[in-house]
Write a structure and sequence with these properties.
- With about 290 residues, the protein is of the alpha+beta class.
- The chain is built from 7 helices and 10 strands.
- Strand 2 and strand 3 form a beta hairpin.
- The longest helix is centred in the first third of the chain and has 24 residues.
Length: about 290
């Protein structure tokens, strides 16, 4: 009963102000996405483009609701630039070796902003150097069309009364029509205030164990979802890369930190990002982070 009462009190898009905050965040990230995409050219470094995106996310969200000093706003997901077979969430540190984009690279951009904890997350895929005169062909064209079509299908299927498993199955059919595979186990989460990985989720291409464990659910009125489509020309199975993890998120756990440096870092992280994902690049001293 307590859980139900808690959910009843949760702000939803039934309230005009919540819709306004979502729309403001959405307009911001869509505009920033275009600027970040323009920076993805041959010779550009991934870290510079990621840093450029993060600065825009911070500055644009800082321009709204200035009178409300207590309202949290800013980055809901740091700018990530993942190239070719790197699936997602690549956001390198300034202290790491440069990764330089070149013509023909398939580049995946993702990022997010929030106003008062109401997040808008966006993603886009492009091929460096492609144009009307230099069109994308072959398997790169197949996988781009597969992802685009799957996203369009998901947008039409996520509606009140529909089930998450039916979306999973239809995404599989779409990808296979282009002789591609959805990336195994990737999740599209319900978005809630101050939470980008809410209780309900849609899973892509689950293996047998994941299909048994993944909780079946129905979509309800006034729920918000971030649709995250990832498609591969290969087997669709992720593998560990050599790159270190740089994007983190605070768990809903009580921390008892003993070291002064750890307490300082945790305090700064909570102030800047609270429960939203962040990159270590956002802190002054990357090594201490």
């Amino acid at each position: 009963m307590a859980d139900k009462e808690e959910h009843d009190d949760e702000p939803t898009i039934a309230q005009d102000i919540v819709v306004t905050k979502y729309k403001m965040a959405g307009d911001m990230v869509n505009g920033i996405l275009l600027k970040v995409a323009d920076k993805c050219v041959a010779g550009a470094t991934v870290v510079e483009v990621c840093d450029f995106g993060d600065k825009l996310l911070t500055s644009e969200t800082g321009k709204v609701f200035k009178k409300d000093k207590e309202m949290k706003k800013g980055i809901a997901f740091p700018t990530c630039i993942s190239i070719n077979n790197c699936i997602c969430h690549f956001s390198p540190l300034k202290s790491e070796p440069d990764v330089i984009m070149k013509d023909g690279d398939l580049v995946k951009i993702d990022m997010g902003a929030h106003i008062d904890g109401f997040a808008a997350v966006v993603a886009h895929t492009l091929v460096v150097g492609a144009s009307k005169e230099n069109k994308i062909t072959g398997r790169k064209a197949d996988v781009l069309l597969a992802a685009h079509t799957a996203a369009e299908v998901a947008l039409r299927l996520v509606k009140p009364g529909a089930e998450n498993n039916s979306v999973t199955d239809d995404l599989q059919h779409v990808a296979e029509a282009f002789h591609c595979k959805p990336v195994e186990g990737m999740l599209s989460h319900q978005l809630q205030q101050h939470k980008i990985d809410g209780e309900k989720a849609i899973i892509q291409n689950p293996n047998e164990a994941q299909r048994k464990e993944h909780e079946k659910c129905k979509f309800d009125v006034h729920e918000v979802y971030g649709i995250d489509i990832l498609v591969s020309t290969g087997e669709g199975k992720g593998r560990e890369m050599d790159a270190r993890t740089t994007v983190f998120k605070k768990k809903e756990t009580v921390y008892q930190l003993k070291m002064k440096a750890s307490r300082q870092f945790f305090s700064e992280m909570e102030k800047k990002f609270n429960t939203m994902p962040f990159t270590l690049r956002s802190f002054e001293d990357e090594k201490k982070s």
